[in-house]
Amino acid sequence: MRKPVIAGNWKLHKTIPEALELIEALKKDLADKTDIDIVVAPVFTALAPTAQSLKGSPIALAAQNCYFENSGAFTGEVSPALLKDAGCSHVIVGHSERRQLFGETDELINHKIKAVLAEGLTPIFCIGETLEERESDAMMDVLKRQVTVGLNGLNEAQMLNVVVAYEPVWAIGTGKVASTDQAQEAHAFIRGLLAGLFSTSIAEQVRILYGGSVKPDNVDGLMAQTDIDGTLVGGASLKAADFIRIARFEKI
């Protein structure tokens, strides 16, 4: 059995006081949830204070991005080593907004994944197709390229420390969500890719999350699918009640 992961990506929201207020609400209502891995990803400025607040709780801390060098003349960047120092255990890598808005390539994302793993942190590796790519029947080609290049050079031991997140770009922040069948089809395809790149045993152990307008009213159906091992939540992770309900998904 793969342990579910419920992760919240706060994107560019929440001051430090607002972040700490949300964390307090989550700690209060999710203190008993040890049967899943819960992860929150605040903005960079809130990471260190949030890490202090999370001590002793089952909630883990993620950063939303990183650079692949640990130090040097890279103005404006933050390294895996610094994120670890701030209290992070996870780093989101390759989110579609980084790809679409900031031009991140599969090769760059591969460098980041390796850098995150080298620091003993867990990368949450995001992949997914645009609406145009899906409608032109290029979805599987896109996912194959993203997975193959993004994970190039990793060995099986390293792959076991990677969490994959499938996020159809057309469903992020749009209110649209892939149907349970669409999501399951993509997740099964991704697991098959991992089996080909590594082994069936590794593929069966890697956790693959679904992201894209996940809400309290659709999480149960998503989590009922064979190959969906959790969710990467955007907007709904900013509201304590919504994220708590998602973390307390019901098996149907």
TrEMBL record:
Record-listed E.C. numbers: 5.3.1.1
Keyword check for Cytoplasm: yes
Pathway as given in its UniProt record: Carbohydrate degradation; glycolysis; D-glyceraldehyde 3-phosphate from glycerone phosphate: step 1/1; Carbohydrate biosynthesis; gluconeogenesis
Catalytic activity: D-glyceraldehyde 3-phosphate = dihydroxyacetone phosphate
Predominant subcellular localization, coarse grouping: cytoplasm
GO molecular function: triose-phosphate isomerase activity
Residues the record lists as binding substrate: N9, W10, K11, G173, S213, G234, G235
Subcellular location: Cytoplasm
Pfam family, one: TIM
Keywords tagged on the record: Cytoplasm, Gluconeogenesis, Glycolysis, Isomerase
InterPro entries in the cross-refs: Aldolase_TIM (IPR013785), TIM_sf (IPR035990), TrioseP_Isoase_bac/euk (IPR022896), Triosephosphate_isomerase (IPR000652), Triosephosphate_isomerase_AS (IPR020861)
Active site: H95 (electrophile), E167 (proton acceptor)
Family to which this protein belongs: Belongs to the triosephosphate isomerase family.
Protein purpose: Involved in the gluconeogenesis. Catalyzes stereospecifically the conversion of dihydroxyacetone phosphate (DHAP) to D-glyceraldehyde-3-phosphate (G3P).
HAMAP family membership: TIM_B
Subunit text: Homodimer.
Record-given protein name: Triosephosphate isomerase
Lineage: Bacteria, Pseudomonadati, Thermodesulfobacteriota, Desulfuromonadia, Desulfuromonadales
